[in-house]
Specification:
single chain, alpha/beta, Rossmann fold, 2 domains, six-stranded mixed beta sheet, two-stranded antiparallel sheet, 5 helices, globular
Length: about 180
């Protein structure tokens, strides 16, 4: 049975939820899927998987540094397999910024790395104000106020289009 490795970097935990959904979708196509957090410093061992997917969240306009570092250190291995990358960010809630070619954070990240993923995805994330610390809550509320997003400090707002996540999972299975 073919195996797909999904590596992820999450800030508040929503990216792992998206990864779990992608995992379910891929598994319905007959693959075994393994999830691994990039903070656990996974080792890409050639021959132990057939496809690799990397998913990463955005905080304050950037992916966590470990995402770019992992890609740089493992670029040759990544390029040897069918591969995909997706970004999770709240700006993707806007229709004009919810595709790989129109999402400014994904485009900026791709310009900083040498790797060219074969498939790309962008998913709108989630704001869980009650779970945020004081500084993050105030900063994100300010950003949301500026960008005309939700600012109620007691709200949890999920923007993720789960059908789009499922579509990405099917695309990975078909690679």
């Amino acid at each position: 049975m073919a195996k797909v490795l999904i590596l992820y970097s999450t800030t508040d935990g929503h990216t792992i939820e998206i990864c779990k959904r992608i995992k379910q979708t891929i598994e319905t196509s007959g693959y075994r899927v393994q999830l691994q957090d990039l903070k656990d410093e996974p080792e890409l061992v050639p021959g132990t998987f057939d496809k690799v997917v990397i998913g990463a969240s955005i905080r304050y306009g950037k992916h966590q540094p470990l995402v770019g570092e992992f890609i740089k250190e493992n670029q040759t291995t990544l390029e040897g397999y069918p591969n995909a990358f997706f970004s999770v960010n709240v700006v993707a809630r806007k229709p004009e910024k919810n595709r790989p070619e129109t999402n400014p954070y994904l485009q900026k990240f791709l310009q900083k790395i040498d790797w060219e993923p074969q498939q790309l995805g962008v998913f709108a994330g989630k704001i869980d104000y009650p779970s945020l610390g004081f500084v993050d809550k105030q900063m994100i509320r300010l950003i949301m106020w500026i960008t005309k997003g939700p600012t109620d400090p007691n709200s949890i707002v999920e923007f993720t289009d789960w059908d789009k996540v499922d579509e990405f999972g099917r695309m990975v299975a078909e690679m």
